[in-house]
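Weekly sync notes, structure subgroup
Attendees: PM, AL, DS (notes)

Item 1: joint prediction request from the bench team. They want all three components modeled as one assembly rather than separately. Inputs as received:
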Amino acid sequence: MKIVALVDCNSFYASCEEIFKPYLREKPVVVLSNNDGCVIARSSLAKKLGIKMGVPFFQIKQIINQHQVNVFSSNYSLYGNISSRVMGVLKNYCDQLEVYSVDEAFLVLNKYSQRSFINRAGEIQKVIKKWLGVPVSIGIAKNKTLSKVANHLAKKDELGQQIVEILTKKQTEISLKVLDVGDIWGIGSRIAYFLESQGIKSAYDLYKTDPRWIRQHLGVVGERTYRELHGEVCLPIIEKAEAKKQCRVSRSFENYVSDFKDLEKRIVSYATRASEKIRSDQLQTRQITVFIRSNKFNKNNTPYYGSKTYNLISPTNDLFEIIKIAIQALHQIYRSGIKYKKAGILLSDLTKEGIFNQDLFLKRTERDILKKVRVNRVFDQLNQRYGSGTICVAKENYEKFYITRRKNLSPAYTSSFNDLPVVN
DNA sequence: TCTGGGGTCCTAGGACCC
DNA sequence: TCTGGGGTCCTAGGACCC
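Output from the run, pasted for the record:
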């Protein structure tokens, strides 16, 4: 039997900031989302102040000032770099590794069955702390859902070892009794609300429910969760990430935008970024969607959401073609007099680059296509080598529209020579 | 005044086929 | 008056995840 360990970095983004500023460990720390909008990570001291995940920053400014909470804008290049180092270490400690998100990974631990899993996990935890300075909690069980349960309990064990094992039926039942139904992996807020209205409040209540009722009301997804709680394996470990199926670039604006030209610059910027992304994955798109929206929270302004999708006959990852279509879409959905707050582009129906049917009516020779490929390659190489925005299309008038408000950004300690930390 | 971004999967219903 | 049965494919929307 396979044993699954879920390794999850504690307060990951906040922990990354603490690596290079050790004095922060004694202080509450929060990290904000893009545009400094919401709280997306809190150190344990910040959690103790009652700061909730996802709250708008402006709502907690008073707590921030009162307790001198350290605030950071999100620094994704730093977190991404630390993440890949963590995953690199984990790879050496297991048979199979699924990198589930930037701060989590599922490990299969078979090879070490002659030693206790808890000891093994303890070793992993120690090494990551020592080499990278990142604290992790580890949940051990027979499948992913139960390892998530174990991890949830491990996280709560702040004064202890932060490693929890759920292998026997008895351990399972005890664990599920202290877990709210909404804390189960796969049970989101909507389903939790429904279940609670049906008298199912704890994870154990769900565990004890008739499976036919589960199938009927929660569908196959719910049934899988139910079966995993009972120890079956329904969700495989996925070692090699499959090719992406869609790619999205969207941003909220720092202020309201109503002017078409302003909106157009932003859309061109997002289209540039999105096309760069799919080219770097050697993918091409056949469906391009552009959307713009008003502020969904502000009830005083006219609400508006507009989106337009174009299906292409021949797939592409050409910068200029994608931009052209994106602008065309924007023309379709733009209404004057609206205060726009967010916009984005979605490239979907992604397939492997270079496989496509020729468009019968669009006479393009192989030479034309190769020329485009070369132009795109030069574009990407210039921006990679000399920095993003070194070259851009004139319509964008490069203003880095995909980076918005970031008032409290920490240096890129691990990914920029200019920002390397200095040791005295 | 101020509220992120980027993904996945499943289902129901419509359009179409023989 | 009365109109079948069994498929596939696509899309939009809803749910979930971090």
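Discussion: The radius of gyration of chain A is 24 Å.
Action: AL to compare against the crosslinking data before next sync.
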